[in-house]
Fold each of these.
Amino acid sequence: MSIRAAVLRSPGDVRVEDVELDPPQGGEVLVRVAAAGVCHSDLHLVDGVLGEGRWPMVLGHEGAGVVEAIGPDVDRVAVGDRVVLCWVPSCRKCAACRAGRPTLCVPAAAASLAGTLLDGTSRLRLPDGTSLQHGLMSACLAERTVVPAAGAIPLPDGLPLWQAALLGCGVMTGFGAVRNVARVEPGESVVVIGLGGVGLQVLAAAKLAGAAPIVAVDRDAAKLELALGRGADAAVDTSQEKRPVRALRTLTDGGADHAFEVVGLPETMLLAWKSLRPGATAVVIGIAAKGAELSLPALELSIDKGIRGSFYGSGDPAADLPELARLATRGELDLAGVVTHRDALDGVGAAFERLRRGEGARTVLVLDEALAYT
Ligand SMILES: [Zn+2]
Ligand SMILES: [Zn+2]
């Protein structure tokens, strides 16, 4: 079938155009996309900083919709199911999956990097026959997409799909880092560096965990305002504050119990490290450009400080996503409030420009008006 999609033709060249989508094969489903968020990793792909050869590609990996058809050997989802897309459809068989680390699933990572589905092939092509990559096995900045069945997680009723879309990347990533990696406890101090779409979810999860104080750090005053309105106890504007480390240590009574870096730059990773108290660990969520290196004051390792990464929430999205959806339907997790812009698919270029300028939190593109608000 022919669908409209946001296609990365080459670095910097994103076009909304008609592409061909083949039917789902064994273990795959066809999803009519209701809405999709525009994530910073999409921008990294557009800018070509995640490595060579990742184009041409249909972008998008934070989406929700309705299952329209299923291929052979699919039993976990059915036609008509409302689903959120999960961009690591883990195999449940490889060494990482058996070790309880499904977000590090080996075959899922290989297919994702190759831009294919799990069988190593693509269902997408340009009208001239050129094969297209599936962005993070989701390719949901498009009217429809074919994904592995494990990448379509059924949703409970009561959560509008334009909000549910956010669960699939930003919320899973932010909440997972707080709950599965840092395991924030009530009364612990938290520093969040970078208050974009994911950083705001880190803040929300820390708030829900009872953290205090929570200090938001950004160079954009509007984002800090948003963070203060959503429960941050203090804000540090690094475009104004000349000594951010001292400010953070003062605000956290000598050093934070947890610091989350949600930017992807060595400087902000170092700031996260320096804001910690002895014995604390920084969690890096931001995705650095390929080749970037981080240098740390090594002596501080001797006071039990640590730094570690987190990938897609480092938990089990198949279990975590429905639980996050239930939190949202109960009103304990506000999704609508982090969406600063809503637009049609044609607004994708403007959304990338805002991300590049560091302006606004999340843009959600509505692919299907009728479905998105159900
Ligand atoms: Zn993302
Ligand atoms: Zn696996």
Note: Residues 90-91, 93-94, 96-97, 105-107 surround zinc ion (ligand 2) (CB under 6 Å).
Amino acid sequence: MLAALAPALGAGAVAKLGGAGLVTPAGAQVTHAHAAPRRPAPHAHGDAPDHPGFRTGSTVDHAANGFPPTELLRDFDHGRTRRLASGRVLREWELIAGDKEIEVAPGVKFPAWTYNGRVPGPALRAREGERLRIRFGNGSAHPHTVHFHGIHPAAMDGLPGAGLGIVAPGKVVTYEFDAEPFGLHLYHCHVSPLAEHIARGMYGAFVIDPKRGRPDADELVLVMNGFDTNFDLANEVYAVNTVGFAYMDEPIRVKRDELVRVYLVNVLEFDPINSLHLHANFFHYFPTGTSLEPTELTDTIMQCQGQRGILELRFPYKGQFMFHAHQSEFTQLGWMGLFEVS
Ligand SMILES: [Cu+2]
């Protein structure tokens, strides 16, 4: 702020803080221009044409999308379970690939490729040591797979040219493997061009709970993503859980002093790094969720594509607390939100 003002004040001029604002040497009062626009005007991304824009005052039609961001927050898909003769639990899901137009910011439509008609795909949740079975049907016009992060045989890795291989449109395959290790993982399509299959929306969180679980908490899943709406290999919209500014319009409601656990996954394509910064609070960070001991108490973490981690925190004060990427460009193009503590 001060640095930005310096040129306007002229060489050698030094501003001072007065009672009601910033006082320049000439005596003019500069009020603190803090109030950023809620939806800043979009800007060109490199040489790309201007984005169609976020329509100020309007909101995304979440019902048409079929996945309201507030519902996505706590929507973990536990699948169906039954006990095998061996005594082990078998957990089963069905994933269907499909092509679907979604709205990623007010007035901005995107031709997505989805798992189960949503972006991100369902947050699959299992327990360490279970047997997992995923029936995958391809209802899209394009070939796809499901590649899970975790420990499993090569044949079950969802890679073209190995094991079950590419799943052509209309085909169905079944992936089966053990739930290990415990932690926060992800799944995504692995068909090339990989960047496009991921950027179109084919990914989801994959939580494996430790055998003894984690302490009770209000649990949220946040998938950091973005959308290349003009197909110039750069993102025009950034978000958590797909819809830019969604949690500005509808803040995430949490309770004061209650333990909040955030499962945070970064799948952002085209930009090498993403991040999360929380205002006015700190959180314990468990990288990949594979240890029950946090590695850090911080207010900012960064993740490369495919990185993920668990955040645990309590809010000691009531009110609204912002969280956002600490890359300003991402923030201005949608990746910002609020916690509402009551
Ligand atoms: Cu794909």
Note: The chain is about 10% helix and 40% strand.
